[in-house]
């Protein structure tokens, strides 16, 4: 029986009955306070659980728990990004998966760069701003995060890590293709060797990847980022 279904305490002038009534009142008060405490504790637990769940996405991204660009050890399937990309132009695309937002930019000096377009702060979409500085910048409007367009490194705002790099290649016909990814801050050589070693041993060998047939061990100071 719940507190709200308690039978009413006895009524009348009988002292025994009144004593019983007082005792019943006391028990009722105890149960009400116990139930209130329980309810409050349960409520707080529920609130904490729901709030924790809502916060978990952001924390997961910040702590690197959730899927990020470059997490896979597998070499992704090459994907065409654009028929051509001229200096000062950018294009948004998806790579390596259909849900992975990415951006490719041709800097004014002709350098081709590609990055994950998922902000390393709380996963908002990163945009290319050509009007900011000689190289433009990669800008996250959620909390004013800024990434260097040439390196992907954090230039301003709260993002904790650089944007993961996407490796691009340009074909003779001018088309631009995405071929591989790197984890945030991972040296290019490590990222490429990790993905090419099994899938493209010929490429791994040409890169001099450690463990590739005929490759020399690569010393850390030969690594480029
Ligand atoms: S989500 Fe990009 S700066 Fe916060």
TrEMBL record:
Residues 1-23 are annotated as: Disordered. The keyword Iron-sulfur applies. It comes from the Bacteria. It holds the Pfam family Rieske. Keywords: 2Fe-2S, Disulfide bond, Iron, Iron-sulfur, Metal-binding. Iron-sulfur subunit of the cytochrome bc1 complex, an essential component of the respiratory electron transport chain required for ATP synthesis. The bc1 complex catalyzes the oxidation of menaquinol and the reduction of cytochrome c in the respiratory chain. The bc1 complex operates through a Q-cycle mechanism that couples electron transfer to generation of the proton gradient that drives ATP synthesis. This is Cytochrome bc1 complex Rieske iron-sulfur subunit.
